Amino acid sequence: MGPAVTALVRWWFEPVALGRIAVLRAVAYAFIWVDVLLTTSWVADHADVPGALYQPLAVGRVLPLPTPTAGFVRGIMVALLATAVVAATNRAPRLLGWTVALLYLEWMVIGQSYGKVDHDRFAFLVLLFAVATVGRAGWGDRSRSEAAGWAVKVTMVAVVATYFLSVFAKARYGDGLANWLDSATISWAVVRRGTFLGEPLLQHPWTLQASQYGVVTLEVLAPLLLVLRGRARGLMLALYASFHLVTFTTIGIIFLPHLVAMLVFLPLERLPVTTGRQPSRTTLRGSPHWVASPPTSGDRS
Amino acid sequence: MLGARGKVVRLGVTGLVFGLLLAGTVVGSDDHFPFGPFSMYSSAHDPNAGVVSNTVEAVLDDGQVVAVSDGDTGMRRAEVEGQLPRFIEDPQMLEQLAVAHERRRPDAPRYAVVRVVRRSYQLRDGRPVGAVTEDIVAEWARP
User: Are A282 and A265 in contact (CB under 8 A)?
Assistant: First the structure.
């Protein structure tokens, strides 16, 4: 292997503390309950929609997955929620992890096969499959593992790709990026689904026009998330979080699963452990200023 | 630490997943979920053209016209819009929304008519101007 290949392989497998995987599992599996029951509860509503309106995606035709009936949709929902609860405790991490990931993928097929596909969960799907490939991981476990490193890295790249590749989609569907930038797409979005905070902006269209340039700037810069460390990365993450917050307050859209996947950038292994049940080689003292400090800053004990 | 086999398998999967994603971005469509293009708000809308928004409404047996919400049928507005070409081509398909409504709201009055109404707004320099026009693009009536 040449030095460039070696460096690339080392980059993909840069070790990460297993404790980060433990926290990611708990958060992702808990989020599945929020997602299924609250924030995308419309997926379950497809139980009552006649099969004639089911338009299976390519994945549903190739496998081939069944046309959902009321019983099938409810069965998948119960199985997904039940498996997620057990998986959140870090038990049988591979078996339960794969089961949750596959059930969630089928849940998405049920959700997206009726005429509308959402683009907010590629990174979350990658996260679910990625954490299933790592073995046992305990809260606060600071031992670093290449398997954990790869799982974290592929999720990071999936998050970055969601932003970065959306620029290509704008160029492809918007008749060139320059044309998209000068279009009234965000005005169109606000007319269709503006909130009481978004609608007044229609009277000042330049604000919406400027925001189109801002959005593309953020999306183009996303790969920096893979390069920056420490405070700079923390600031950048805060910038993306505020972008999603503004989108939510003005047009009522928030990429929640994507935001959950974005947590991989945080040194979650430094979260204080309260149970003492899991191995922790390091005692944490003081407040965990974990966004601002670089992940390689080492022990503070 | 991972063995050579574990690394090779993981790198292969990485290449496959991101390769599919790149292919989806360049030549794919929503049909290729989860590898389709990230096309949220990717079309360019003319600052001086119309904005169209479709809604579903129903007429009850007593003649009352009601708005049909996402929860009334289990089909979201964007999903109805996504299948709009089917509804326009074959308005009988709208009966499926009436069926869904009866399953979801068995105690509510059933729909005698289901229709998709298109609301058009005019934009000038990105700002909505003038009146909203409405027209029916697909309609089904219970025989």
Answer: no
Closest CA to B14 of A133, A119, A136, A24: A133
What is the C-alpha to C-alpha distance for residues A289 and B16, in angstroms, rounded to an integer? Answer: 37
Determine phi and psi for B33, rounding to 5 degrees.
-45, 140
Tens digit of pLDDT for each residue in A184-213? Answer: 888 888 888 889 898 889 888 888 889 999
Q: Is the Cβ pair A108, B33 closer than 8 Å?
A: yes
**CA gap A90, A85 in Å, rounded:** 10
Is pLDDT above 70 for A301? no
Residues of B in contact with A146 (CB under 8 A): 1-2, 7
* Mean local confidence (pLDDT), B31-51: 88
Residues of A in contact with B21 (CB under 8 A): 122, 161, 165
Higher pLDDT: A77 or A90? It is A77
- Strand pairing report for B50-60 and B65-67: antiparallel
pLDDT score at A298: 35
Q: Where are the beta strands (DSSP E) in chain B?
A: 50-60, 65-67, 111-124, 127-141
In this predicted complex, what is the ipTM? 0.91
Task: Pull the structure tokens for residue A97.
Answer: 């992890």
- Summarize chain A as % helix, strand, coil (round to 5): 65, 0, 30
Write the pLDDT tens digit of every residue in A207-232: 888 999 999 999 999 999 999 999 99
Give the model's confidence band at A275: pLDDT under 50 very low, under 70 low, under 90 confident, else very high: low
The pTM (predicted TM-score) of the whole model is 0.89
Q: Are A18 and A269 in contact (CB under 8 A)?
A: yes
Give the model's confidence band at B124: pLDDT under 50 very low, under 70 low, under 90 confident, else very high: confident
Distance from C-alpha of B98 to C-alpha of B18, rounded to nearest angstrom = 42
Q: Does A285 touch chain B (CB under 8 A)?
A: no
In single-letter form, the type of residue at position A190 comes to V
Residue A234 predicted with pLDDT over 50: yes
Compute the nearest-CA separation of A147 from chain B (Å): 6
Chain B CB within 8 Å of residue A94 CB? no
Q: How far is A254 from A244, CA to CA, in rounded Å?
A: 6
Phi, psi of B2 (to 5 degrees): -80, 145
Distance from CA of A158 to the nearest CA of B (A): 8
Instruction: Name the residue with tokens 């974290």.
Output: A152
Judge contact between B70 and B76, C-beta under 8 A.
yes
**Chain A residues with CB-CB distance to B53 below 8 A:** 191-192
Which tokens is A36 given?
């299924």
